[in-house]
Design brief:
about 350 residues; Ribosomal Protein S5, domain 2; four-stranded antiparallel β-sheet; globular
Length: about 350
């Protein structure tokens, strides 16, 4: 394994991509839904990728990966599909075909907890694909980055994965996504006055339930049922309708209507399977209701663990009191500070001084 301590990189590439909350219409961006309508919001905390580029690239100069959140460093093996360590990272490196005349030190980090149902894995893939794309003459568009990131999960890793997380991370902001034929979709960024943007940002709270979300037999059961029901089934239509209502509410600056759409979406998730709304989630929802929240959305597909997006009322002190009670009621729960991200994927080179140090 190459020792790069004390060596100066030839180049340093930075990349950040937002995570996703409030995915009203989720589940309809999948292969079995065939067509979908999704509303979502890109937020900070970002996934951060930094690539130190060194001359080299022979067998003694491997691609080193530092998964900083896990404290793990390992040599990527892009030529070996049987990845047993962080396969998403290794598959992305293999997909992007790193030039053979460089050696890389790749660092990935995010303040977002793993398994929070906020599209973090999609943001990791988007940020990593964007950074690796900077090594070549090609420049993928945000749409192409999103499709590449989604293909890594579905085609290379054979995972169940929709497209909305990757599109939100690539584009950022507030989005209305219409998937006309899986996985092909259009993205319509929702442009609103600053006052509406700031007020929406102030009202939103992201509550992590303290347990990492992962796919389960419940999700497989739901997928089997929806696959058999077809794209026009009532359960999917109910979810699609909440995306349209959310879009219209945000354009109108109508937070009551947005909250109602969030609640309708969560109830529609529950009709897919009761276990998609966990007991911990219901308890948080009850506390939010008692503090005057206008709406709540179980992020992602739902199930055990994960997180909720809560839309608060007009009084900030009531929102703070809600957060305190949620965290006191269940010590595993925590508030994750969020800010709406006006931008999606961003990639740039660090400025290096004459000695190769970043300045």
């Amino acid at each position: 394994m190459a020792d790069r301590v004390g060596r100066q990189p030839r180049r340093v590439i930075n990349s950040v991509a937002p995570i996703r909350i409030c995915d009203n219409g989720g589940w309809t961006d999948t292969w079995f839904a065939e067509r979908g309508k999704i509303f979502n919001i890109g937020v900070y905390p970002y996934v951060e990728v930094q690539i130190e580029v060194f001359p080299g690239g022979d067998a003694d100069e491997p691609i080193m990966v530092f998964a900083e959140n896990y404290g793990e460093q390992f040599a990527a093996q892009p030529g070996n599909a049987g990845w047993d360590r962080h396969p998403l990272l290794q598959a992305a490196i293999a997909r992007m075909q790193v030039p053979g005349n460089v050696a890389l030190q790749v660092t990935i980090f995010s303040e977002a907890p793993s398994g929070a149902s906020t599209g973090t894995s999609a943001a990791v893939a988007v940020a990593l694909v964007g950074a690796l794309d900077s090594l070549t003459d090609g420049r993928l568009t945000p749409h192409e980055v999103a499709y590449t990131a989604q293909s890594i999960e579905t085609d290379m890793l054979k995972l169940q994965c929709g497209i909305q997380d990757q599109l939100c991370s690539a584009y950022g902001g507030i989005n209305y996504i219409e998937m006309f034929r899986y996985p092909r979709a259009t993205v319509s960024p929702i442009q609103i006055p600053n006052s509406t943007w700031w007020e929406l940002e102030r009202r939103l709270t992201l509550i992590y339930l303290g347990k990492s979300h992962s796919s389960s037999v419940v999700h497989e059961k739901v997928i089997r049922e929806l696959e058999g029901a077809g794209p026009a089934c009532r359960k999917l239509e109910d979810l699609r309708a909440t995306a349209e209502k959310s879009r219209d509410a945000v354009y109108a600056g109508d937070f009551v209507a947005l909250g109602r759409a969030m609640i309708e979406n969560t109830e529609a998730q529950g009709r897919l399977h009761a276990d998609l709304i966990s007991r911990d989630a219901w308890r948080v929802i009850e506390i939010a209701r008692q503090h005057g929240a206008l709406g709540w959305k179980v992020n992602g597909a739902g199930g055990e663990g994960g997180s909720l997006t809560i839309l608060g009322g007009s009084l900030t002190h009531a929102q703070r009191a809600m957060i305190r009670e949620i965290e006191a009621d269940n010590p595993l729960c925590s508030n994750i500070p969020i800010y709406l991200s006006r931008y999606g994927l961003r990639t740039w080179d660090a400025t290096l001084d004459a000695g190769g140090q970043s300045v």
